[in-house]
Amino acid sequence: MLSERIVERLNQIVGAQRVLLDEADLQRFGVDRTTIWQANPCAVVLPGSIEEVQQVVLLANELNLAIVPSGGRTGLSGGAVAKDGEIVVAMDRFNEVINFNPLDRSVTVGAGMITANLQEFATEQGLFYPVDFAAAGSSQIGGNIATNAGGIKVIRYGMTRDWVMGLKVVNGAGDILELNKGLVKNNTGYDFRHLFIGSEGTLGLICEATIELARPPADSTVLVLGVDSFPAILDVLRTFSAQMDLSAFEFFSQSALDKVTAQMGHAVPFATQTPFYALLEFESAAEAELDKAMALFEQTVEQGWVLDGVLSQSLSQAEALWKLREDISETLWHWQPYKNDISVLVSRMPGFLREVDELVDKSYPDFELVWYGHIGDGNLHLNILKPKALSNKDFVARCVPVSKEIGQLLAKYEGSVSAEHGVGLLKKDYLHYSRSPLELELMKQIKKVFDPNAILNPGKLFD
Ligand code: S2G
Ligand code: ZN
């Protein structure tokens, strides 16, 4: 519980109506989409300028109070959870376009801008912000940057990191840093921008971002294929990516499709039921691309990898097919799933898939597993569904040992224990499977440089 004196100090910085203390707000702003930890912040503040953010950080240093930066709170690793009496600094008011220059083909926005609003702004300017994922309607660009969000178009457009041209941040010491200033070319020593991208609020609070925008893609076509097995998905990926520039190559299991169609009322893509489904997207302005896709489809059927398929004939049908993939995460939320968000090199996927499939089938004989994700860039989402009868605590206790074995397998295949969702609280005990002891030590030393009193998001990424 904050003392009156501290509340008064916060009121003076952001205004009394921007200091939230009632339980409903503390619960709303104190968590992300994880369901493991109880929200317990001491207060929520909504600053309206980078100077106000700076004042809050300086006060936190003076009073040795921890801060949890908060954006859209759509995270899945506990990165925005305030469970130990921290002050939540919510960036919701930083939601404006600050500057747009068509010549630079970049836009500067507040960190609290909703991702979908940035995508819409780009479209209105005849441009395109290509990083896209299911939570884009609620997530904020500052949180996307802090976790280097990936999503469904990474094989074509890369991660959030690839679109950040500049950042204005307040670091843990309360310094305002302007990083790279939107420059395309700037070779003047260490590029701190890339330290803050993916730092999960542990080095600073992102207040403004200059984001590069792309030319909009030509009309695209979506192909959903019914695939016979895990290895066959990779055969299909190899066949199509050898001859086409794919914008997306996603996959999901029959159990994912069953849940999405039942929960959301979507139609199945075709009558045949198959163990897995691959969803491909490609630009199809030229007839030749469609002909090529059809030829490759027939080739994969002849090989026995693909058992059925459907090609979108319209934008609305393409969108309907995408919903089968994009709605999986929201659908599964009802089962409070334990999530593994893992990645290996695509070339190492066949061996890894065989071993991880064996491991989880052996380890979870009585749990329902749902596989889906961005297999085109080596990223798998394995969701273990919590049986209704099992308490969350007992369920997580059952999943942790298996996650350790998955971590060992990832170490063997030199993969990542956190492909795109970030580490937060959920993955920090597994970080050593993907990062060396020396790297972890160097990260802690870098944290000391930017957050000398360790007030920013303590306990996230590492202790
Ligand atoms: C996806 C969304 C988050 C989740 O659908 O690709 O990254 O629930 C996920 O796994
Ligand atoms: Zn994903």
Computed CA radius of gyration, to the nearest angstrom: 23 Å
**How far is the first residue's CA from the last residue's CA?**
24 Å
Average residue-wise pLDDT: 97
Query: Quick one: biggest sheet?
Result: 7 strands, antiparallel
Overall tally of structural domains: 4
Helix/strand-derived category reads alpha+beta
Proportion of beta-strand residues: 15-25%
Unreliable stretches (pLDDT < 50, length at least 5) are none
Q: What is the count of helical runs?
A: 15
Q: What compounds are bound to the protein?
A: (2S)-2-hydroxypentanedioic acid, zinc ion
CATH domain class of the largest domain: Alpha Beta
- Helix-residue proportion: 25-40%
CATH level-3 fold name of the largest domain: Uridine Diphospho-n-acetylenolpyruvylglucosamine Reductase, domain 3
Overall CATH architecture of the largest domain = 2-Layer Sandwich
Describe the structure.
With 463 residues, the protein is of the alpha+beta class. It folds into four domains: 88 residues, 2-Layer Sandwich (Uridine Diphospho-n-acetylenolpyruvylglucosamine Reductase, domain 2), CATH 3.30.43; 116 residues, Uridine Diphospho-n-acetylenolpyruvylglucosamine Reductase, domain 3 (2-Layer Sandwich); 110 residues, Alpha-Beta Plaits (2-Layer Sandwich), CATH 3.30.70; 110 residues, Alpha-Beta Plaits (2-Layer Sandwich). The chain is 35% helix and 20% strand. The strands form three sheets. The protein has a seven-stranded antiparallel β-sheet with strand order 13-10-12-11-15-16-14, with helices on both faces. Strands 5-6-9-7-8 form a five-stranded antiparallel β-sheet. A four-stranded mixed β-sheet has the order 1-2-4-3, sandwiched between helices. Strand 5 and strand 6 form a beta hairpin. Helix 1 packs antiparallel against helix 3 and helix 13 runs antiparallel to helix 14. The two termini are 24 Å apart. The structure holds (2S)-2-hydroxypentanedioic acid and zinc ion. The site of (2S)-2-hydroxypentanedioic acid (S2G) has 8 residues, from helix 12.
